[in-house]
Amino acid sequence: MSSAREFLLSVLPSQTGDKTDGDGKSVPSVTLTFAQSLDGKIAGTAGRQLILSGSESMLMTHWMRSMHDAILVGIGTTLNDDPQLNVRLIPEASRLNVKLPRPVILDAYLRLPMDCKLLKNYSDGKGQQPWVFCASQFDSDTESARAERTVRKSILETAGAVIYEIPCVNGLLSIPHLLRKLYERDVHSVMVEGGATVIGAFLNQASQPCNPATSPVVDTLIVTVAPTLVGDGGVGYKVGFSGEQLNGFTHVRTDLMGKDTVIAGKFI
Which among 85, 80, 159 has a CA at the least distance from the CA of 119? Predict the structure, then answer.
């Protein structure tokens, strides 16, 4: 059993290298990470929050957050869990030398509540200003829907959020546009934590073929497996590809963090 920091330093990429997408645009490195049960569930019935990770692997997650410029979650996770996305579990003596990551929320319809912990922590000086990525437009947009989003945008900006508009592709926010915008805003590493839709979208992007001059969308996958079963009522995730479609994924390291098994691999 290794320390969390030593494990992470051995599996995460260095932040010094440049990374480009298929169009030659600079993008941040991406770590996709989440906890699941033995039967592949990441949340309870109807997305209800489950505490799957033990204290040791949860501490590892907070150290991992401190090693990235931003933490990204979807609006479903934000509504169900009201997360803080900070590094509060790192011991106070060590926390003085770690950075607070930027919270990033994928929220196509601007449903983020004004009273969420992310906005409250920013208002209280305990967290960085949240960035919210929403859809620039929808095919089914009506004048009233556009007006409503404009009002929501103004309310959230007044509450402290920064709003960025990006295109939608097949009903989901465009990951390539998201990553380019993050890099433009000096985010060079992003940690993607979920939920199910976001995990599936990033895994699907990671499975897409890329030419030798470009890097895969996801660099590192770190999965914590808790020794428990959730059952059919729990929420799992879809990867969006068959085994034959996935090329260039390799196991890097497996370790125990308390009762949990943590598995790390790289897309190459």
Answer: 159
Q: What is the CB-side half-sphere exposure of residue 140 using CA atoms within 13 A?
A: 3
Within a 10 A sphere around the Cβ of 159, how many other Cβ atoms?
Answer: 18
Nearest to 255 by CA among 64, 66, 56: 56
pLDDT in tens, 69-120: 999 999 999 999 999 999 999 999 888 888 899 999 999 999 999 999 999 9
The answer to whether 100 and 126 have CB atoms below 8 angstroms apart is no
Angle at 191 between CA 189 and CA 197, to 5 degrees: 130
Q: Tell me the pairing of strands 249-257 and 220-225.
A: unpaired
Best CA proximity match to 156, nearest among 109, 107, 106, 114: 114
pTM for this model (two decimals): 0.94
